[in-house]
Amino acid sequence: MHSLTDHQTALAEADHCVKCGLCLPYCPTYGLYADEGESPRGRIALAEALLRGQLAPDDALEGHLDRCLLCRACEVHCPSGVRYTAILDSARARLRESGGGTTISAPDSPLMTMAARLARTLHLPGLRGRLARALPVEDKAPAPGSYPPAGPPRGRIGLLLGCVTRTQQPGALQAAIRLLNALGYEVVIPDAQECCGALAAHQGDPDTAQRQVEANRSAFAGLDGMVSLASGCSLHLAENLPERSPEDITPFLARGLQAHPLAFSRPQGPMALHVPCTLANGLGATNPLLELLGHLPETEIHTLGQPGGCCGAAGTHLLTQREQAVRLRQPLMEQLEELKPRYLLTANIGCALHLAEGAISEGIEVEVLHPVELLSHLIDSPGGI
Ligand code: SF4
Ligand code: SF4
């Protein structure tokens, strides 16, 4: 776990890397390119040289640092405990200071606006339409305010709307409120909340990221905890706002259902389950999705991909690193084609959009949902505890 890091701290962190290479076999970009510059060890060396002023920014250096997915598989497998993400964030910030770095950072702008702009500038015909169709938006994001349970509340929990989730997956937010209320929690949506800060932090803009963290620190004060539906946001909050007890909604609900079971109907077909790398590697939580779905009767669940693997969505990579994102997604599409599940469940909005867009491209019929949407559709006892 790390918080937003200055360059000196990042250099001290890079010193802990003993260049053993034990992380290399787990790195998806090294697996794709077999190039040291696309490996964790290579990127740490490049970041170190950049931060010490021994290497001037150029397109090649920027490319190596940009293509990192921040999937954190390297951190999980590093015997020296190197906090790789802190080093990479810092190097990206230095690139931005020197006039380079990713230029599409717009943490509060709707993803579709970004997609439309990029589809034009990067010549990606059809992408915007496929993304727009990827997750049908039938609900409105819940309004700020308080959503009480039927009886006396077990606690007051803040809900982070998320800058992409609120526009692309508002039904999942409504579903989360329904489940939390059914478990006896009052849900509070503070009006003054902002983006979690992950997009800005990972695109070399720590000042914006810090401002967003501070805004959320104030907005979520006085509650018993807070939850987020996108595991990427949950991870950023866990690392930067621990005093507000943030948690991803999937382990929170899995625990809640364990203590206070609710009745659910049987799902109407098999499910494919995608565990985002931010959940598996970042939050060290591989089981909450299975635990959560284990509360449904008679389920057939198939896990997609390798444990801790990355689907390629990687924040804005689904837009900015199209070729790499599609190559990393392809094995999951082949598995999906073979399994032909009724549902594809994932707990991060970026992964959901990327996988759903892939399914449309490949002509695979599957309903892509956040697990809380499926649970909410199948709940038998909405007020029943
Ligand atoms: S975060 Fe992921 S893509 Fe980046 S260097 Fe580590 S393992 Fe490779
Ligand atoms: S990041 Fe860790 S595992 Fe990878 S080369 Fe450095 S010390 Fe070894």
Care to describe what's here?
It is a single chain. The protein is an alpha/beta fold and 385 residues long. It has three domains: 7-97, Fumarate Reductase Iron-sulfur Protein, Chain B, domain 2; 145-258, 3-Layer(aba) Sandwich (Rossmann fold), CATH 3.40.50; 263-378, Rossmann fold. It has 20 helices and nine strands. The chain has a five-stranded mixed β-sheet with strand order 1-3-2-4-5, sandwiched between helices. It has a four-stranded parallel β-sheet with strand order 7-6-8-9. Helix 1 crosses helix 3, helix 3 crosses helix 6 (84-97) and helix 8 packs across helix 19 (349-362). The protein is globular and about 60 Å long. It starts with 6 loop residues before the first helix and ends in a 7-residue tail after the last helix. The structure holds iron/sulfur cluster (2 copies). One iron/sulfur cluster is lined by residues 26-29, 40, 43, 68-74, 84.
Give short descriptive properties of this protein.
about 375 residues, alpha/beta, Fumarate Reductase Iron-sulfur Protein, Chain B, domain 2, four-stranded parallel β-sheet, binds iron/sulfur cluster
Quick take:
Helices cover about 50% and strands about 10% of the residues. The protein is an alpha/beta fold. The chain folds into three domains: about 5-95, Alpha-helical ferredoxin (Fumarate Reductase Iron-sulfur Protein, Chain B, domain 2); about 145-260, Rossmann fold; about 265-380, 3-Layer(aba) Sandwich (Rossmann fold).
